[in-house]
Amino acid sequence: MDQDLVQRAQRGDQRAFETLASQHYARLQKAAIGILRDRHVAEDATQQALLDIWRDIRRLRDPARFEAWSYRLLVRVCYAESRRMPRWAPEMAMRTSEEPLAADAFGVVIDRDQLERGFSRLSVDHRTVIVIHHLMDMTLEQVAETLGIPRGTVYSRLSRAMDVLRAAMVPEVPTPTSIPAQQEVVP
Q1: Last residue of a domain, one of 22, 54, 85
Q2: CB-based burial of residue 27 (10 Å sphere; 0-12 exposed, 13-18 middle, 19+ buried)?
Q3: What share of the chain in percent tops pLDDT 90?
Q4: Both 80 and 137 in a single domain?
Q5: Distance CA 82, CA 69 (A)
């Protein structure tokens, strides 16, 4: 069905493109949020990606490759947006639908906080590979094809990103040098 919509959109059918855009908007936005870590910037990136898709859809040679191609355009926009973003950004607020419901609610919040800190330490390249592979459930070969990079580069980025995330999940244990010395009280 997507191939038919893509072909019709390539011929200039706006309704076909509107249908395509509405079908794929949520997945594109999900990827943009994962890459950019800011919902508002991700919404702008998703909108820009949809404009780029509409503008360039006639250049798509194989309509069956629409999904990977649309991710590639989205990633380009996300890279451009990340260059415009300030280096420091406030933490994203937790939505009420994301509030933990588990018995160990504090543990879930701590884990999420540690992961978020780990994600903030990742470069856009590393976040992109993590998001597209894990969040969008693509194989590493599909990630390489989508990003237009060698498979070895995908493996390398994923490995380094996972190392950073694992390190962020290790609880910080105070070292003896970081504990302030107790002063003796002389009477």
Answers
A1: 85
A2: middle
A3: 56
A4: no
A5: 20
2: domain CATH number is: 1.10.1740.10
What are the φ/ψ torsions at residue 84 (nearest 5 degrees)? -85, -20
User: Does 56 lie in the same domain as 129?
Assistant: no
Q: Give the separation between CA 119 and CA 36, rounded to whole angstroms.
A: 10
- The Cα 109–Cα 115 span in angstroms is 10
Tokens 């990340």 — which residue?
Answer: 82
65 and 125, same domain (yes or no): no
The amino acid at 39: R
Find the CATH number of the domain harbouring 162: 1.10.10.10
Say how many domains are in the chain: 2
Residues 27, 146: contact at Cβ < 8 Å? Answer: no
* pLDDT at 96 exceeding the cut of 50: no
How is residue 122 annotated by DSSP?
S
**What is the C-alpha separation between 46 and 55, in angstroms, rounded?**
14
How do residues 100-149 score in pLDDT, each as one tens digit? 455 566 666 776 777 778 888 888 999 999 999 998 889 999 999 989 99
DSSP 112: H
pLDDT tens-place string over residues 60-92: 999 999 999 999 999 999 999 988 876 554 444
Range of the domain at 116: 102-172
Q: What pLDDT is stored for residue 167 in this prediction?
A: 84
Instruction: Answer whether 58's CB lies under 8 Å from 98's CB.
Output: no
